[in-house]
């Protein structure tokens, strides 16, 4: 297998995931957050189900794992996307991607608290450095926040939900394929979101002016971010291993910042760029070696599963 094809696939998956923050902001001009998430889940479920059918990769869920799948879907996509989708209505795509990128750091803390996973000194340093980077990114020179506090709280809820997801997923990744897990939790998540959509968003959806401009961002989220990125990433993991492939996920805020500047005119200050660089450096350090395989495998999916 050509290394160019493998690394091209993993970079393309990162670009698709980085675009998810931009596509959401574009879709949010026409639809409310729950509507975007609900139809993203529906379309993604349809595509992944067809993919699993064609490839013959459907699996049978063991009885003892059914509760875990329900808990998994409750954390993500349900709680995670309630926090992330509403949080992104208050902040820029780049800000959202930077905050969400701290999931591996917070998940590492969670693994230490709940599983007593041993960390190296460089991991502790990386955790500290990542939070310093966040402070550089979100604080003005006078010490006040440069972003909406409501958005920060909602995105923090998404990060916490992702940690719960990660800890639950670590008990499933050894027995089920990543694409199958994502498809099952999307199905359950869509069922969970259905009553929320009907109660809060249905009326607005029926009166909205539907057009190609409104539908394309939602389709992009489903086809490229929820499906294409996963298939490409799974392909890359199979050829270069999960550790090498996972390193690339730390670059998502960089891609998001670049494409946000290029496509929607988001302005970035020198302070913001420094903050992003510090966060990413901390992420690399926090994830440096020593993780248990099932926890590392689970971390790859966290925050990118729908």
Secondary-structure topology with pairs:
Layout lengths: L2 H25 L5 H23 L10 H22 L5 H8 L2 H13 L5 H18 L10 H21 L8 H30 L4 H29 L1 H6 L4 H13 L5 H17 L6 H9 L5
Helix pairs in contact: 1-4, 1-9, 1-11, 2-3, 2-8, 2-9, 3-7, 3-8, 4-11, 5-7, 6-12
Architecture overview:
With 306 residues, the protein is mainly α. The chain has one domain. Helix content is 76%, strand content 0%. The longest helix is centred in the middle third of the chain and has 30 residues. The radius of gyration is 18 Å and the shape is globular. The two termini are 28 Å apart.
The total count of helices amounts to 13
- Content-based structural category: mainly alpha
Mean pLDDT: 91
Rg over C-alpha atoms, rounded to the nearest angstrom? 18 Å
Count of all domains: 1
* Global shape: globular
User: How many distinct beta strands?
Assistant: 0
How many strands, which pairing sense, and closed or not: the largest β-sheet?
none
Helix content range:
over 70%
- Helix-strand pattern: HHHHHHHHHHHHH
Sheet-strand content, in percent, reads: under 5%
Low-confidence stretches: none
Give the distance, in angstroms, between the N- and C-terminal Cα atoms: 28 Å
Key traits:
306 residues, mainly alpha
Provide a compact summary of the structure.
The chain has 306 residues and is mainly alpha-helical. The chain has helices at 3-27, 33-55, 66-87, 93-100, 103-115, 121-138, 149-169, 178-207, 212-240, 242-247, 252-264, 270-286, 293-301.
């Amino acid at each position: 297998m050509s290394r160019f094809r493998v690394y091209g696939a993993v970079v393309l998956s990162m670009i698709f995931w980085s675009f998810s923050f931009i596509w959401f902001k574009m879709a949010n001009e026409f639809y409310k957050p729950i509507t975007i998430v609900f139809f993203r889940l529906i379309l993604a479920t349809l595509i992944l189900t067809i993919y699993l059918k064609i490839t013959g990769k459907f699996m049978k869920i063991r009885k003892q794992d059914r509760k875990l799948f329900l808990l998994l879907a409750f954390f993500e996509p349900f709680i995670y996307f309630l926090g992330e989708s509403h949080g992104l209505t208050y902040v820029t795509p780049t800000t959202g991607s930077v905050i969400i990128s701290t999931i591996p750091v917070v998940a590492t803390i969670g693994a230490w608290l709940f599983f007593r996973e041993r960390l190296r000194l460089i991991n502790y340093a990386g955790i500290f450095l990542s939070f310093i980077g966040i402070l550089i990114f979100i604080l003005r020179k006078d010490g006040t926040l440069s972003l909406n506090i409501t958005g920060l709280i909602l995105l923090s809820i998404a990060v916490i939900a992702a940690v719960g997801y990660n800890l639950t997923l670590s008990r499933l990744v050894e027995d089920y394929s990543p694409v199958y897990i994502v498809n099952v939790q999307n199905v359950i998540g869509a069922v969970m979101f259905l009553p929320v959509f009907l109660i809060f968003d249905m009326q607005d959806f029926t009166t909205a002016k539907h057009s190609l401009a409104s539908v394309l961002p939602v389709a992009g989220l489903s086809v490229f971010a929820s499906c294409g990125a996963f298939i490409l990433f799974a392909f890359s993991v199979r050829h270069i291993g999960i550790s090498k492939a996972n390193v690339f996920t730390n670059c998502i805020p960089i891609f998001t910042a670049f494409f946000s500047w290029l496509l929607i005119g988001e302005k970035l200050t020198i302070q913001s760029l420094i903050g992003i660089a510090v966060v990413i450096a901390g992420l690399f350090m926090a994830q440096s070696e020593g993780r248990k395989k099932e926890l590392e495998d689970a971390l790859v999916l966290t925050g990118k599963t729908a």
